[in-house]
Amino acid sequence: MARIFLVDDDPDFVEATAAILEGKGHEVVKLYDGDECLEKLKEVRPDLIVLDVMMPRLDGYTVCKKLKADPQYSSIPVLLLTAVAANIPTTRYTQLQGMETEADDYIDKPVEPEELVKRVEILLGKS
Predict the structure, then answer these.
(1) Which of 43, 55, 71, 96 is 20 to 30 Å apart from 103, CA to CA?
(2) Angle between the 113-123 and 11-23 helix axes, to the nearest 10 degrees?
(3) 3-7/48-52 β-pairing
(4) Cα dihedral angle (38, 42, 46, 49), rounded to 10 degrees?
(5) Which residues are CB-neighbours of 111 under 8 A, at least 6 positions away?
């Protein structure tokens, strides 16, 4: 069983996605912003972080950059979730920023549950 940090500011998305991942036997730690993710890392080490990009306070790009720059956390796979592609005209985020973060994978929202599970399993090495 893998421990997965699920970080998104949308509580409905977090609950629904956590239920899917828990149904596959994973332990899901539900977190609602980037700061909360970085704080929780001091207590618990996940096997994978599923990280939304567009969040208040600390966005997913910034969290991912911090993780990948820190030797203590750089090996933890990060799956970025974003609606950026659909929102480029109305958002300050860009797809280029996503590529610059060294995230291990990148998936657009809305995401199909089967696709999310497939990407998670690949990143956990269970493809």
Answers:
(1) 43
(2) 60
(3) parallel
(4) 10
(5) 81
**Residues 56 and 32: beta-carbon distance below 8 Å:** no
> At 111, is the secondary structure helix, strand, or coil?
coil
CATH number of the domain bearing residue 73: 3.40.50.2300
Count Cβ atoms within 10 A of the Cβ of residue 75 and give its class: 0-12 exposed, 13-18 middle, 19 or more buried.
exposed
Number of domains in the chain: 1
**Residues of the domain holding 73:** 3-123
73 and 67 Cβ atoms separated by less than 8 Å: yes
Q: Beta strands 27-31 and 48-52: pairing type?
A: unpaired
Question: For position 93, what pLDDT does the model report?
Answer: 44
